[in-house]
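help with this:

***
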Amino acid sequence: MPIQKFAPMTKNFPTFDCDAHVTEPPWLWERAKDWLSKDEYEALKNTIWYDAESQQLIVNGKAGAGIGSQRIGGSAGMVNVLSLAGPGLKHDIQRALNVRNLNPKTALTREQADYIDHKGSYEPKPRLRDMDVQGIDQVMIIPTDIDTYPWLLNAVGAKAMCKAYNDWAFEYCQENPERLYFAAMLPMQDPKFAEQEVYRVAGKGCRVGLVRPIDAMGNYPIQPKYDRVWRAMEETGVVYGMHPFPAFGSLKPPGYTEQHSGAELISLTATTSGLPHSFLINVQDFQAEASLWVVMVLMSGFFDRFPKLKAAVFEASSTWLSFILDECDKNYKLYRNERRLRPLKKLPSETFFERCVTGFEGDEAPPSRLPEFYENILAWSSDVYHHDGDDAWRAIDTMRKCELPESYQAKFLGGNARKLYGIDAPKKFIADRVTEIERPDWWPTEEEVKWSLDPQASVRH
């Protein structure tokens, strides 16, 4: 059988992956009755329900909603981008598999698609095995269908969905509580429900409450009505986890015309311009939502009102942050005398450095070239198992090429995240890279991978 080989590497510190994903499996709904009251269960069925017979997610009465988190096991001729990036599934390999699927004669079979549908995306034991190969000692798991949940119209149904997911995620993490941690979903449709869920999940040891920074149904998440949620986070130590996403808007109610996200404008621009590539949607969407939120909370005095609250900016890269913080500082100094809000207690950049971290991915080199700026605010994110995910060894390789001292590597790849979340380092950690993975006979050869990277390889003939 083919052997996929990797260069030997070692590390001298434990890693913490602050943003990796799970895909919400069908049995989350099958088991929901175990976790919910009768009224909550009925509200869940009427608000967001996975129909096993048709294999569709039904949201607000609309079938076929969501981005397919519940599709598990693989389908012939398809690559599931939500559960793809497991050990060794580097982007060049993904490209080769996608090129195969362009031709019915070479397209993946059901069994082959199942092989690359990584079960750790929805089962904990396979994930722990994958983490051992990927150099990931500890991880914070985050759900996938992030563009769906803010649009749930029934607040009780939203509460039920969050409760069901959080209890499933908690059970998932019990396989190894020293290595697996979950970020909780919060029903922001109703501030009281969200507050109650913060206290409930904090009792289960949860460290992060997830909030999507969009104005879905007029609910931008720094409005005064949410003050009770932030006070609950201060009291419990739960971190405000801000996670952006592409703004597909497929669940916007009929007649709702308000723009809910800067990412929505980017998606519209890409679509109406007929751009054949998803670069704008896949990259700028995340940064648009994140940068707007950062400016809003820093310039509004949000953190002055909640002096114990801490926050994490997830999946938005980090290179843009230095520019944003510099502009916020300049703007505040220049216009502070015209400000109609209370004066800030500190410069925006100082507040961010004290209270926040920002995620970054392993192929980002700029942070390694600016270690003094990022020293205490950078936290590595693998984004596994989504298609753009990669392992800790990729991040370490990027840092070493930039000649970043190991003390910074240890902070960026785990120390800063553990400090923010109040999590102890594991008693043991992965020191050596796994250098060989046995693959099936149909695995792409080096020649096929090289050929598939030619732009012409993806042109249908």
